[in-house]
Each structure stands twice: as C-alpha cells, then as structure tokens.
Amino acid sequence: MDQAHHEDRASLIYLRVDELTLDTRNPRLVTAAAPSQKSLLRQLYEQESLDELAQSFVDNGYFAEEPLVVVKENGEWVVVEGNRRLATLKLLLDESLRADLKVDGWPELSIAQRDRIVEVPCVKYDNREEVFPFLGFRHITGAKKWAPFQKARFIAQLIDAGRSLDEVEDLIGDNSQTVKKLYQDYIVFNQIKTELDMPERPIRDRFSLLESDARSTTH
Description:
Elements: H1 3-9, E1 10-16, E2 20-22, H2 37-47, H3 50-60, E3 68-73, E4 76-81, H4 83-93, H5 95-100, H6 111-117, E5 119-125, H7 132-141, H8 148-160, H9 165-172, H10 178-195, H11 200-205, H12 207-216
Parallel strand pairs: 2-4, 3-5
Antiparallel strand pairs: 1-5, 3-4
Helix pairs in contact: 2-4, 3-4, 8-10, 10-12
C-alpha cells in the first residue's frame, strides 16, 4: 500500500477517553458473545499487566507517537487497535471503575496529569474493513504478533465475513501459508470443542501445541 493511498483512508483526530469504547470483536479479547464494556475491562486488567502502562501514563502523559486506531460503528467510536492502552486510561481516569473492579495501588492523578491523558490522538478509519491490512501486518506478520489462537481467530473473522483464503493472504501480505495453517488449526479447535463437548478455555490455552502438531504433520 502506498503512503498516499493510506493517508486517503485514515486521518488523525483527538478524542476524549470517555468517548471511546473497547472492541468487542478484538481477537485478543476472548470472551462470551456480546461482552459488556465492564467485562472487557476486567479481562484486560486481570490478564494484560495494565499497571505498567498506568505508571507510564502518570509519569509521561500519552505518547502522541502511539495513536489509537478507531472506527465509528453504531454511533460509537470503537478502538480496534490499542484496547490495552484504552483500558488503562479509562481506569486511571475513573475512580469508581477502579473500585468496582477492585483495582488497588494505582496512583491518584493530579489535575495536570489528568489533563495530559483525558484526550488522546486517534487514527480514524472510515470502517473496520480498511483497518484489516494494518492489523494483519502488525499482529500476524509484523513486530507485535498476537498469540497463535488470536491470529487464528482474526483470520476466521475475515473468512466468516466472506473473504477467501487467498484474499486474506493478500490482505495481510502473507506468502508463507501462515494464514492457511492457522485457519486449519482454528477449524480443528472448533471441532474438538463441539464434537468432544470440551470447555473452550483449556483447548484455547493449548492452541500453540495444536498449531505445532498440525504443522508437524505437513512436513
């Protein structure tokens, strides 16, 4: 994708943290169907070491070099990239949320510290489809890779939305059959869960082993 085309599709804006919502479709946030914002916040707090980010935001404010990526859906600004950062900001800015989720030991913000994070830079895309190439590159073939199950879930979302395997490979710049292997593993995962009537969590936690087993059979 050339730079001019990218700039045509995305623009930088500043939005208040209380205007932003966590992404219920984010492959990293493995939850039940239709999760609430509070349940997503709880999951991120319990699993994603938000304490480290919180102290950085208190000390340094929000780095403009790391904008959140947003789309507007059903009248809401949804953060499709940066949910860990957004959850940290929301908890820092809302004492009642911290109390509700039993978040202990976080610093109280001064007025100046609050002013530095109450509004944050966001790259706005017109729709989620336009963000897919960036997410695929960043988390599947790029530097900030998701865990195998999260990659596979993202690929399955694209295919369930009507894209072919070849289209997904082109979308994220994959020429090593990673997409095909991960999608095959995801199908196996669903078969195990459904046909053997097993709970999802233990299979999901061992997805990397499933991936390794599947790859070893192809060599």
